[in-house]
Amino acid sequence: MSAATVKRPSGTAAIASLGLAILFVLSLFVGVGDMPLGRLLSDADALELLLVSRLPRTLAAILAGAGLAIAGLIMQTLARNRYVEPSTAGTAQSAELGILLATLLWPSASLALKSLAAGAAALLGTSVFLMTAHRLPPTQPFLVPLFGLVYGGVIGAAVTFIGWQADLLQYLAVWTNGDFSGVLRGRYELLWIGALMVAVAWFIADRLTIMTLGRDASVGLGLDYARMMQLGLLIVSIVSALGVVVVGMIPFVGLVVPNIVSRLMGDNLRGTLPVVALSGAALVLGCDILGRLIRYPYEIPVGTVMGVVGGFLFLWLLFRRPSHA
């Protein structure tokens, strides 16, 4: 292994960290409200704007982006297919169904209880997807994402029908399109649980790497395959459910970020997982800033911006062959 190969992962991580730091500072000062840097500490209104709105919004974008990118990476590992992520495998749609049912059956439920219901529904929906995906012929890798799109579409149609019958379509619009404009202090803290799930994923990264070899090879190497599958499902479900509950569905993050990082750094999850998290956070935060600037002083939801940017990135991944050193 050459010296360039050894330095490459650390260099990629440094670039991702620097980009995220720049976007973090920029996000604090982009918005309609006036927040002069020179009078930040002496102006009570500017300081309140920073602590109540701008900082929570920035942290929410970072936590959501990192969590969704890691959830996509784990989903691709569990399904052994690079073209799946929670929003294209029925996970996010199942989380929406769980929130909707919790809203109908218990209208006064807290955000934490709705998150619990969404997580349970996402866990069930993802389990069904993976059980079916593993039965599809491995020689046809595009069948898995196609099935995921159909599966998610069916669940999404059921959610829309129930929402229409219960006159809750306006609430569904909040959950189906990611938006950080309503994030304030006290409304995003559940996303820190997603950060905890990212830490758990890093702790089991070596075992997840072994799982990419398949069930037989993993068991032969002494890995408890069933237990790791359950833990991976739990991480994906919790992260996806929290994202849908707090900010809504943000597409493509878990699809394009792991694939781009994998092309740059390989498939060793211990080395790539931090870069995936940093890159996902930077991508979502960058799209949120872009949504604030395109039609300033109005905003475009981050889910809409991410749909366009992510679509271009996905097409680039499809049509550009990876370079082999």
Written description of the protein model:
It is built from 13 helices and no strands. It is mostly helical and 325 residues long. It has a single domain, classed as ABC transporter involved in vitamin B12 uptake, BtuC. Helix 2 runs antiparallel to helix 10 (225-246) and helix 2 crosses helix 12 (269-294). Residues 1-7 have low confidence and may be disordered.
Under CATH, the topology can be stated as ABC transporter involved in vitamin B12 uptake, BtuC
Order of SSEs, N→C?
HHHHHHHHHHHHH
Low-confidence stretches: 1-7
Beta strand count: 0
Radius of gyration (CA) equals 20 Å
Question: How would you state the average pLDDT, rounded?
Answer: 84
Number of domains: 1
Structural class: mainly alpha
Number of continuous helical runs: 13
